[in-house]
Amino acid sequence: MNGWPAGYQLIRHEEIDSTNCEARRLAEAGKAGPVWILARTQTAGRGRRGRAWLSAPGNLAATLLIRPARQPCGQLSFAAALAAADVVEHFAPAAPVTVKWPNDVLAGDRKTAGILLESAGDWLAVGVGINLAYHPEGTEFPATSLAALGVAAPSPDQALAILATRFAHWYNGWMSEGFEPLRAAWLARARGLGTPIRARLPHEEHDGVFAGLDSDGALLLNQHGRVRVITAGEVFF
Length: 237
Fold this sequence. Notes:
Layout: E1 9-16, H1 19-28, E2 35-42, E3 60-66, H2 76-91, E4 97-100, E5 104-107, E6 110-120, E7 123-130, H3 156-177, H4 180-188, E8 196-200, E9 205-213, E10 219-223, E11 226-230, E12 234-236
Helix pairs in contact: 2-3, 2-4
C-alpha cells in the first residue's frame, strides 16, 4: 500500500463482527501492534455508547491496535479525529471540515466520521469509521459521506493509507510533545468554539458557551461566568 507508515502492520478481512472486537481478541492473544485491522463489512459495527454503526461496503471501517508508551491514552481520540479530518479534507478539499467534541468529524453540519476508543490493560483499540460512499439517513445528528459531497469516493484502502499516515504523524507528536499540540490543532478545527451549545450527559443536559478544552481534553462549558468541566457526553449546536 503506497504511503504506508513504517512499523505499522495491516490485516484485512472481507467480513467480521467488528474491527474493535477483533483488536480486543488480538490483544488478548498477545499481539503487540501497532496493527491496523480493515474490514470490507462489519456485521456488528459499534459506535459510542453501544450504538450501531452502519458498515456498508465502500465505507471505511478500521481499527488500530496499539500499546501506547505514555498515558493518558484517551487523548489519542483527538489524534484519531484529526487524522480522520485530514482524510476528509484530502478527498474533499472544498468541504468545510471541522471536528466535534468528543471525537466526531463533520463536513458542513453533518457527521462524516466517528471514533470509538476501547482499552484494557496496556492496549488501546482506536476504531475509525468514515462514510466514503454511503451514509445513514434519519440519525439524530445528520450524517453525510464523501460521495454526497460530490466527490468520487476513494476506496477504503486509499482512505486507510492516508488515515494511517496522518495518525502516525499526530501520534508521534503526542509521544514527543504531549497533549498540547493535539489540543491546539483540534481547537483550530473545532466546530462551535465560542458559541452556545448543549451538552448532553447520561442523566442531564447543560447549556452554555463552548469555551475550549482543558489540559486533559475535557470540554469547558461557560455558564454565565461559571465554567463546568465535562468529561463525557454529547454536544449539540
